[in-house]
Amino acid sequence: MSDYVIKGQTGDWEVVIGLEIHAQVTSNAKLFSGAATAFGAEPNTQVSLVDAAMPGMLPVPNRECIRQAVRTGMAIDAQINRFSRFDRKNYFYADLPQGYQISQLYHPIVGEGEITVLVDEKDENSAKTIGVERIHLEQDAGKLMHDQHPTMSYVDLNRCGVALMEIVSKPDMRSPAEAGAYIRKLRSILRYVGSCDGNMEEGSMRADVNVSVRRPGEEFGTRTETKNVNSVRFVQQVIEYEAKRQVAAIEAGEEVVQETRLFNPDKGVTKPLRSKEDAHDYRYFPDPDLLPVELEDEFLAECRASLPELPDAKRKRYEDLGISVYNAAVLTAEVENARWFDRLLDAGADAVAASNWANSVLPGLLNAKEVAFDDPRNTPEVSAEILAMVDKGEISKGQAKEVFEYYLDSGDSPAKIVEDKGLKQTSDTGAIEAKVDEVLAANADKVQQYKDGKQALFGFFVGQTMKAMQGKANPQVVNQILRAKLDE
């Protein structure tokens, strides 16, 4: 049970959350036409006669969109329905030229599945499994532009007919944190699979947020649906605001109205858009222009064979290599980072050292130089070469940072930088031991103080030895030799 509780004036309340995620399918064309789907195109430049609902135009299903929906379902271990069907959802709006939307109500392409999330990435015990009720395919609508003319609204049909997967969760989430973890995990899976780019800022992934409240353990309350929320942070704000608003209303003796609401991100509040009853008058019926979709064994086998290693499997593999739960979670969250890290491992880097470098050291170095992660200079092979020199004792961890910074500036190889800058440290025990002996002989009084119990002086001896070696001694070897000589 979630520990997220809304403290009302009459006691504790629990929030119940369900999410409907609209994910734009990665495809070379729209769901039922060959029109392009590039983001940011000039208005009405990506519209076919089918999208514009010209008389006599017939839709033709895009095989790639069906394939991507099936692959997504397989990635969450969902039921894949061999038989599915498209329906017409009838409603009238200026950006919907057909007067109906083609969707899947009665026979969706994907049935029940589930997604396991870590609510707290640092806590392996915070895992929670959230049910997915269905995934269906549908067309997007166009867009009304209200700011182009003082008295008229313009219509842009570029998005009309774009393929969407609507991924409907079960009402299994009980806190904003769980909802945030669910969206991040689902986005990660979609990006691994390649079925959606997950870009919420561009609208290719957005959420309808269903929220209700109840006394813990009681029946579900009346829910509201907040439409088209386009960031994880905003989804969490919607949940917090709606839960508190509904509790306040119920405790004031009011009824929560089942309705559709909109979120105002500037004010952090939701406001009513329209009432919503259980029975919609959408007059669904099977689309007469489209045959049912029947999936063959060969097609399903090809879909399954095309799936990559998914986030959970990759994270488990990393943990088996000794990488911490947190580091493994961070490394696998974004598919580009995970693929980069796999190349780092393939180049021979030690898994634990590589994970600390990739998660803790590298981001800071790149940010300091204002270099993007996907910059061509940031290759795993260069990082592997630097980590190998650290592993061999040729440079220290601190020098590794210097080498990478010099590399970003010059483009020279790490080996050349170490040689040219004189950064190579020595692990020659004979040379280090000779300098240690000199330091101890020159500080006999401090040696006696150390032996009398002043252990803090050990750092002084290390510093003096490193100074005598001009910073080029392997610190580990210096420590080992000093310990042996001081404790004998």
From TrEMBL:
This is Aspartyl/glutamyl-tRNA(Asn/Gln) amidotransferase subunit B. It holds the Pfam family GatB_Yqey. GO terms for molecular function: ATP binding; glutaminyl-tRNA synthase (glutamine-hydrolyzing) activity; transferase activity. The keyword Lyase does not apply. Keywords: ATP-binding, Ligase, Nucleotide-binding, Protein biosynthesis, Transferase. Heterotrimer of A, B and C subunits. Its EC number is 6.3.5.-. Residues 339-486 form the Asn/Gln amidotransferase domain. Belongs to the GatB/GatE family. GatB subfamily. PROSITE patterns: GATB (PS01234). Allows the formation of correctly charged Asn-tRNA(Asn) or Gln-tRNA(Gln) through the transamidation of misacylated Asp-tRNA(Asn) or Glu-tRNA(Gln) in organisms which lack either or both of asparaginyl-tRNA or glutaminyl-tRNA synthetases. The reaction takes place in the presence of glutamine and ATP through an activated phospho-Asp-tRNA(Asn) or phospho-Glu-tRNA(Gln). GO terms for biological process: glutaminyl-tRNAGln biosynthesis via transamidation; translation. It comes from the Bacteria. It is an enzyme of class 6 (ligase). It catalyses: L-glutamyl-tRNA(Gln) + L-glutamine + ATP + H2O = L-glutaminyl-tRNA(Gln) + L-glutamate + ADP + phosphate + H(+); L-aspartyl-tRNA(Asn) + L-glutamine + ATP + H2O = L-asparaginyl-tRNA(Asn) + L-glutamate + ADP + phosphate + 2 H(+). PANTHER family: GLUTAMYL-TRNA GLN AMIDOTRANSFERASE SUBUNIT B MITOCHONDRIAL AND PROKARYOTIC PET112-RELATED, GLUTAMYL-TRNA(GLN) AMIDOTRANSFERASE SUBUNIT B, MITOCHONDRIAL. HAMAP family: GatB (MF_00121). It comes from Sphingomicrobium lutaoense.
